[in-house]
Amino acid sequence: MKILAINPGSTSTKIALYDNEREIFTQNLEHSNEALAPYKEIADQYQFRKEAIAKVLEERGVNLKELKAVVGRGGILPPVKSGAYRVNESMVDRLRNRPLAEHASNLGGLIAHEMAESLGISSFIYDSVAVDEFQPIARISGLADIQRKSLSHALNMRAAAIQGAKNAGGQYKDMTLIVAHLGGGITVSVHHKGRMIDIVSDDEGPFSPERAGRVPCMELAKLCYKEEQSVISKKLRGKGGLISYLNTNSAIEVEKMIEKGDENAKLIYEAMAYQIAKAIGELATVIEGKVDKVIITGGIAYSEMMTDWIKKRVEFIAPVEIIPGENELRSLAMGALRVMKGQEEALEYDLD
After folding, report:
1. Which residues partner with 27 through β-bridges?
2. Mean pLDDT per 10-residue run, the chain (352 residues)?
3. What residue ranges do the domains of the chain occupy?
4. 343: exposed, middle or buried (C-beta count within 10 Å: 0-12, 13-18, 19+)?
5. Are strands 195-200 and 186-192 parallel, antiparallel or unpaired?
6. Domain 154-325 has CATH 3.30.420.40
7. Distance from C-alpha of 265 to C-alpha of 191, rounded to nearest angstrom
8. Which CATH fold would you assign to the domain 2-131+329-348?
9. β partners of residue 162
10. Is residue 350 within 8 Å of 326, Cβ to Cβ?
11. Among 88, 158, 309, 350, which one is most buried in terms of CB atoms within 10 A?
């Protein structure tokens, strides 16, 4: 049961080939600024990226006729449910002609669809960044002009939740879990009986290596009158967090600074752990503290310093499990595999 997974990022396209649960290979196709410069919009990169994938598959001697499915990273769609969606013409039209936002992940479903269609096999997206299973009460922001939205690292968080439930001898659909994804952006989610019912997003919670997270709104409003919108946006997403305080977005570099005795670096880094723990505690109230497990995942979850700080503050809520790494390609492939084996049912996109 060979499945090809495709995960387009801003300057790379990651692909992996799986045979059932066995990884055959993973490859990261880096795209230089010069290579991407001719394309005005991300959507214009479609043919370039598809050809780059085809070249790698040819070089590796992959027999495309052996593929049973192609699965792509889910793009920024109108709110969708968790799990798999078949890529149909309605989704292709939305992603290609009317995307809600320009984002490299929009190319995942498009490339998967064309490759699969030419082979006469199934194409899917899985756990789009737009997964929205909020309860009505979770949508209220505190300002009538603004409604809370569910945009998150859903793919890795749900995969970690499913794995964490399995590790505990249970099933995802029967458990209540809080998952913190620690990467360039940080999001925290609460999963209750198989649904991701609330999140703390990367602009309303902990700061991260590159993002400011939740900042005092009145002070932010004052800053907005002093600076251009583009400058503020960059400060919040790209120049915030660790970069703002320590001029690096590398957790590894920050830990080296701490090892050399930099007390300010330690304060900032521990403050990030402190805010992550606050977000976990915040979501524990959503399910009245009845949490089976807290899971910490993402690239920074490899850091014992960071995870120890978080565990110290939250393990009174529930046992804490560390599942490091982003594991996005495997998450895509395993999601598609569950559909192909009849363990999950793929949904049909019909929001247009």
Report:
1. 15
2. 92 93 94 87 90 96 96 91 95 89 89 95 94 95 93 92 96 97 94 96 93 93 90 89 95 97 98 98 97 97 98 98 93 96 93 64
3. 2-131+329-348, 154-325
4. exposed
5. antiparallel
6. yes
7. 33
8. Nucleotidyltransferase; domain 5 (3.30.420)
9. none
10. no
11. 158
